[in-house]
Amino acid sequence: MAAHQEKKLAEERKHQNMQNDTKTSQGQWGRAWEVDWFSLASILFLLMFAPLIVYYFIMSCAQYQCSLTDPLLDLLTGNKHLSDIWNRTPMLTYRAAAIYSLWVTFQVFLYVSVPDFCHKFLPGYVGGVQEGAVTPAGVVNKYEINGLQAWIITHVLWFANAYCFHFFSPTIIFDNWIPLLWCANILGYAVSTFAMIKGYFFPTNAKDCKITGNFFYDYMMGIEFNPRIGKWFDFKLFFNGRPGIVAWTLINLSFAAKQQELYGEVTNSMILVNVLQGIYVLDFFWNEAWYLKTIDICHDHFGWYLGWGDCVWLPYLYTLQGLYLVYHPVQLRTDHAMGVLMLGLLGYYIFRMTNHQKDLFRRTNGNCKVWGKKPEYIECSYTSVDGTKYYSKLMTSGFWGWARHFNYTGDLMGSLAYCLACGFEHVLPYFYIIYMTILLTHRCIRDEHRCSSKYGKDWKCYTAVVPYRLLPGVF
Ligand code: NDP
Questions:
Q1: Which pLDDT score is estimated for 380?
Q2: Where is this region: Disordered (predicted)?
Q3: Tens digits of per-residue pLDDT, 115-129?
Q4: Which of 125, 154, 324, 347 has the most CB atoms less than 10 A away?
Q5: Bridge partners of 382?
């Protein structure tokens, strides 16, 4: 009996030690274990106001021709009451629910049931089964990369419908925009809540979970690192890529079709927005395997931030330029249009090349050429939860020698181009560049904090060699 109890106590101690080890080690790498007041305040603010912000923007377009100030003025002067605005807002309809359910089901089907065939005939494209990065618990997940294929199939069907079969109007998305918003919200909240419950009760990999004990923080930032159902349905890859990003280009096409229907022409600004954002979306799918190595997949846990964000924030706020142009069809002067195109393409080039340089460098372990020369780098090391020591390298040449996140700079230039395509009459289309600047600056600081904990003194050496974050000589 005594021997049995002693064995039990020893096992409990071992389990306790394992938990402490996990905590210490993960405290060095990954999402926070403790929540400071500023993070908590920001989270509460976002949980309360992000859905309202989305509603406000979409409602402003539908009821106030995209003016952001008129609804406020109406409310402040007593001209209108909240109930007046709400009563004019379209509610959830059976039609929107059916469209949305069909859309999500179709994307799930393409994701889990159609193995990638694009990599078999597209030279240079990396698809099919690919490995993600090592998680803090030392796990390497496998992913079926078939986003490009899903995007192509979806768009072929869209064009076949628009030009041959005419099952539904290509303006269908615009025509149901607000009822679809309610559907997207239902999915966003449902998936975030499910992810939280799953994280507590049946996580895919318990060692990669983080529970701070603060309900709001855990709900927002997520508990599980890589929640999955079955072997292949990965929540992060699915919700990040589809339905939101596949929908992005369809939404823009629907806005262009609405312009055509309303004014008998599609303006050059609408074409610019469709083309520049189309390049960005296609780039995402062409490089989906690379995406497995980005912060979203490698470091963020899956909670409301990603779940609701991908379902609602992304499709509704990233497409504001196209929506705005339906209400304000802007025909740009040729020099203005060319300037926007050049800025967008230059931004895209910097964004892509910077990401490509890092990807090539990491894939070949530094045995490659960047700008015709062998890349320069700093050797660094880190330790995972199980105590295993890993070695890595941080590149200090190419675009990575100019600034520590020059890929974000390129992204911001591209984002500014979309906004400039809408002219200068209203603030609403410029929300995107304001938001992206805040997002990427915050992301930059968050990433550097994480890298500093992960690499310790090696990170200090790196920042001494590459002192600027986004703009050489400025920030
Ligand atoms: P990065 O692709 O810049 O990845 C950062 C990671 O790269 C670091 O955590 C570190 O990871 C590694 N790293 C950092 N410096 C170096 C270096 N010098 N050499 C080698 N590796 C390095 O960041 P993101 O994942 O945030 O962004 C990917 C792209 O996605 C960006 O271009 C961004 O603009 C875009 N993006 C777009 C968004 C949108 O909403 N439109 C949102 C977010 C991102 P490790 O731990 O492996 O060392």
A1: 92
A2: 1-25
A3: 999 999 999 999 999
A4: 324
A5: 390
Distance from CA of residue 279 to its chain's centroid?
Answer: 16
DSSP string, 10-34: HHHHHHHHHHHHHHHHHHHSSS-SS
Ligand 1 contact via 395 beta carbon (within 6 Å): yes
- Phi, psi (deg, nearest 5) at residue 377: -160, 170
409 and 471 Cβ atoms separated by less than 8 Å? yes
* 224, 203 Cβ separation under 8 angstroms: yes
Among 447, 450, 462, 463, say which to mutate for ligand 1: greatest number of ligand atoms within 8 Å of CB: 447
In whole angstroms, what is the distance from residue 308 CA to residue 455 CA? 32
Ligand 1 pocket check for 451: Cβ under 6 Å: yes
**CB contact at 8 A, 321 and 273:** yes
Q: List Cα–Cα distances, 237 to 63, 176, 223, 225, 296, in angstroms.
A: 35, 27, 16, 12, 9
CA angle 309, 313, 315 (to 5 degrees): 110
The pLDDT of residue 18 is 36
Q: Are 451 and 411 in contact (CB under 8 A)?
A: no
Packing angle of the helix pair 431-455, 2-28 (nearest 10 deg): 130
For the chain, give the mean pLDDT: 90
Confidence check: pLDDT of 34 > 70: no
Q: How many other CB atoms sit within 10 Å of the CB of residue 437?
A: 15
Give the pLDDT of residue 412: 97
CA distance 154 to 152: 5
Report the alpha-carbon distance of residue 193 to residue 224 in Å, rounded.
12
For residue 190, pLDDT beyond 60: yes
Structure confidence at residue 31 (pLDDT): 56
- Ligand 1 binding pocket includes 408 (Cβ within 6 Å): yes
Contact 394, 458 (CB under 8 A): yes
Q: What is the pLDDT of residues 38-52, one digit of tens each?
A: 888 989 999 999 999
Residue length of the chain? 475
Which amino acid is it at 443? R
| Structure letter (DSSP) for residue 461 | H
- Two structure tokens written together for 98: 């059916």
Spatial contact of 322 and 258, defined as CB atoms under 8 Å apart: no
Cβ 407 under 6 angstroms from ligand 1: yes
Q: Quick check: 209 and 224 in contact, CB under 8 A? A: yes
Q: Identify the residue whose C-alpha is closest to ligand 1 atom 25.
A: 294
